[in-house]
Amino acid sequence: MATYRVLVSDPISEKGVEALAAAPGISVDVNTGLKPEELLKIIGDYHGLVVRSETKVTPEVLAAAKNLKAIGRAGVGVDNIDRKAATDHGVIVMNTPTGNTISTAEHAFTLMLSAARNIGPAHSAVLKGDFKAARKAYQGIELNTKRLAVLGMGRIGTEFAKRAQAFNMTVVAYDPFLTQARADELKVELAKTPDEALKGADVVTLHVPLTPETNRLINADRLALMNKGALVINCARGGLVDEVALKEAIESGHIAGAGLDVFEVEPPPNDHPLFTLNKHVVYTPHLGASTNEAQENVGIQVAEQLRDFFVTGEIKNAINMPSLDAATRAAVGPYLDLAAALGKLLAKLGPENPDALRVSYHGPLATKDTGLVSRTALMALLEASRPDGQVNIVNAPAIATQLGLDVTESTINAKTEFNELVVVELKKGDVRYRVAGTLIGQSPRIVEIDKLYVDCNIAGRFLFVENDDRPGIVGVIGTALGNAGVNIANMGLARTSDRTRALTVIEVDSEPPASLLDLLKSTPGIVKVITLEL
Ligand SMILES: NC(=O)C1=CN([C@@H]2O[C@H](COP(=O)(O)OP(=O)(O)OC[C@H]3O[C@@H](n4cnc5c(N)ncnc54)[C@H](O)[C@@H]3O)[C@@H](O)[C@H]2O)C=CC1
Ligand SMILES: O=C(O)C(=O)COP(=O)(O)O
Q: Which of 38, 241, 377, 494 has the most beta carbons within 10 angstroms of its beta carbon?
C-alpha cells in the first residue's frame, strides 16, 4: 500500500494526530512553528498538510510541494492558503466548517460583553492598584434593547444573533445569501446592504470570510453610519476592519470601543496604533476557536477528512472542487470510470486543439450531482497530451482555462434509447466530434462514437477501423489479425443509416504490431485505423 506522509504544521488536538496516524498507509509528522524557509525546505516530502491559521501556504510553498495532494485546515478560514496556487498545482483544500462555530460565537459574544463593560482595562487597573479610580473611569454600556448589526449571517453569525436575542437586543443582519424567509425564521431584520445594517446600529459584529471583496469592509464611512457610542466586535479576520479608521473613530468618541480577536497582521506589532487606547477595548490573540471542545472537533474532523481522501478518495468540505461523499461516490462512481474512458477516447479521436468541451447528461442522471463526472472527462482529455501527474481532478478546470478550452455542462431532458446517457463532445470551429456512454446494469459501456452506435467496454485494447460498408471487409480484417497472432476478444460493427460510413470496433488481447496496422491501412476499403488502450 502506498504510504502518504502528512505534515501537521500548526498545533491540532492530540486525538486528531492519533486518528490520522492510525489510518492505514499514512504516516504523520508534527512539526509546528516552522519558519517559512524551513517549511519550503521540507514540504516537498509530504503528500498531505494540516494547518490552522498560522502556517502561510503561499504560492512559493505550493510550488515547492511537488508531492502534495491535499491540505486540511483544522478550522474555517482559509485566507492563509493561496487557493488559486493550490488549485493550479492540483492540491485539494478542505476545511472543517462546523467544529468551531459555537466556540467562536461564544468568544465573539464574550468580546461584546467585555467591551461593553470595560473588562480589559478594568482588570489591568485592579492589578495596578487603581481600584477606586477604575470604578469611576470604567462605567459601561447596557446591551438590553440595543441595536446589533450582524455582518455575515452564516454559522457563527447566526449563533451570535441567537445569543443577542436572549439579551433582548434587536438584530439586523446583512448577508448576500440571507433570504427573507430565513431572516423571518431567525426573527432578524434583513438589511439589503452593509450600510443599511450599520445605520443606527449600537454594535456591529463581523462574521464574514476575508476575501478581496470583504477587505476593509468596515471603514471610516461605515463607522460614521453607526450610532455615537457604538461598539465594533471582530472575531472573524483583522483585514475586515480598517484599523487606523477604527482607532480614529474611537479617539473621536464616535465609536465607544471594540472587542478584537483578530488583527490585520498577526501577531500584531507591539506599537500597533490600537494598543494606545485603553477604554472600552479588549483584545485577545486569535482565540475564537481555542477551546478544548472546538479543537477536538476540528482536529478529529480534519484527520478523518484527510484519511478518507487518501484511503477511499472521498472528498469532504473541499473549497476548490465539488465534494464527493461516500453516498454520491456510490451513485456516480461508475460514471466517473465511464467519463474517464470517454475523455480518453475523445483525446484520440476528436479534433486537436479544440475550442470547447461539452458534457451533457440525459435521463435521471441529469438530476444528480455530476460536477465531478464532467471534471473527470476533462481530466482524461487533458491527461492524454500531458505527462503523468501534471493534470488532476483539482487543476483540470484551471488548465482548461489556460488553454482557452471552454468547458460546459448541460442537462438534456430529451429521451434517448438509453435510460441515462453521458455525451461528451469536442468542438473546433465547425467540427464537432461526440462520444457517449451509459450504464448497462452497473457496467459502464461506450455506446456511441461520432454518431455511430457501438457497444464497447470502457477498458481494454482496441482497434477502431473506419471502412467502406461493403461485403468482405470484416473477413479481411479478421484474417489479418489472425495472421498477426492477435486474438479478438470482442468485435462490433456500426454504420450510418445511409451506409456512407462504417466503423468496426475490435477489442484485442494483445498490442497489434505496426506491420498489421500498415497492412490494414493499405487495404482497399479501409479508410482509417486507430489503436487505443482505454
Ligand atoms: N477568530 C477565530 O478564531 C475564528 C474566526 N473565524 C472566521 O469567521 C468567519 C465566518 O465563519 P462561519 O460563520 O463558520 O462561516 P460561514 O461560511 O458559515 O459564514 C460566512 C457568511 O458570510 C457571508 N458573506 C460572505 N461575504 C459577505 C459579505 N460581503 N457581507 C456579508 N456577508 C458575507 C456568507 O454568505 C456566509 O453566510 C470565517 O470565515 C473565519 O474567517 C472562524 C472560526 C474561528
Ligand atoms: O477557524 C478559523 O477560521 C480560525 O480563525 C481559527 O483559527 P485557529 O485555528 O485558532 O488558528
A: 377
Distance CA 446, CA 255 (A): 67
- With bands split at pLDDT 50, 70 and 90, how would you rate the model's confidence at 385? confident
Mean pLDDT of 418-431: 94
Looking at residue 194, the DSSP 8-state letter turns out to be H
pTM of structure: 0.84
Among protein residues, the one with the nearest Cα to ligand 2's atom 7 is 53
Length of the chain measured in residues:
534
Supply the DSSP string of 344-371, one letter for each residue.
HHHHHHS-SS-SEEEEEEEGGGGGS--H
Rounded Cα gap, residues 309 and 316, in angstroms:
8
In this prediction, residue 193 carries a pLDDT of 97
Check if 237 is active-site: yes
The amino acid at 434: R
- pLDDT for 377 equals 97
Instruction: Check if 329 is active-site.
Output: no
289 Cβ inside 6 Å of ligand 1? yes
Phi (first) and psi of residue 519, to 5 degrees: -60, -45
Cell numbers for 123, please give them: 482588570
